[in-house]
What does this fold into?
Amino acid sequence: MRRSAGVHLLFAGLLALFAGIANAADLPPHPALWHVKGDKGELYLFGSIHLLPPGLDWRAGPVGEAISRASVFVFEIPIDKTAEAKLQSLILEKGMLSADQNLHAMLPPAAQTDLDADAAAAGLSPQSLDHMRPWLADLALIAGQLAHNKATPQSGVDAVLEADAAASHKELRYLETVDEQMALIVPSDPKLELSEFISDLKAFKTETGDYAPLVAAWMAGDTTKLDSILSGEFVEEPEAQKALIEDRNRAWAPKLEAMLREPGIFFVTVGAGHLVGKHSVPELLRADGFAVEGP
It folds into this structure.
């Protein structure tokens, strides 16, 4: 059930811009970048880590060049004030327990102990989670642990790029709605939701320990390592991987291909997990006959 709040990366396909200036091997490492040319338009595909610590210079080199060229910026969902209000409303509707329920009371003694330990590690009060459904408490623990490591949404790729694009009066587009993403996250089977939460509590310290290696691999553009880390989250949950990654990639591909038939340069930012692996967006575009430069 663990929905990592920030797991993402991508591309490096601007080598032609640097021909005669520097050999690719001489360029400093940077997050992976993919470049696709269509009949009229161009796409840059960039993988996001949604929560990052401040101070990382991920916009250097080819990534910065691609950002400066782009006329349209595309994201998974909007993250403006209207979207935040919508999300808060949905959390109140779908993420909270009824007044007569208590998360601790729903758990066996060993899991109660795990919850208290995980909350302490994440810098949270265990009681602050007691009125949350298991899926929401799970996300709160992850976000709390990442915040403990100074990682915030405000420093994440999406927030930084969307704010910059809006300030530059660039066009913004989105591949999904807040409601669509919430429908993917909120479990439909309460018993399965609880059992997966208990399992996640036990694995919490191990799984959150992947964050630093993830960021290091993303910053270095190491797509093999990224794929290994991100795919590892779904080893025991292939159905979740299909629903959260593969099916969404297939739904996005036609939308991206339509952009390639429009005039313009599109900078597309999605979670890094969508751009690595055999079912990734770049591989789907290659399978549909597009020349994709990048890893």
Observations:
- The CA atoms of residues 52 and 151 lie 4 Å apart.
- The two ends are 29 Å apart (CA to CA).
- Confidence is low (pLDDT under 50) at residues 1-27.
- The beta strands are 33-37, 41-48, 72-75, 171-174, 264-271, 292-293.
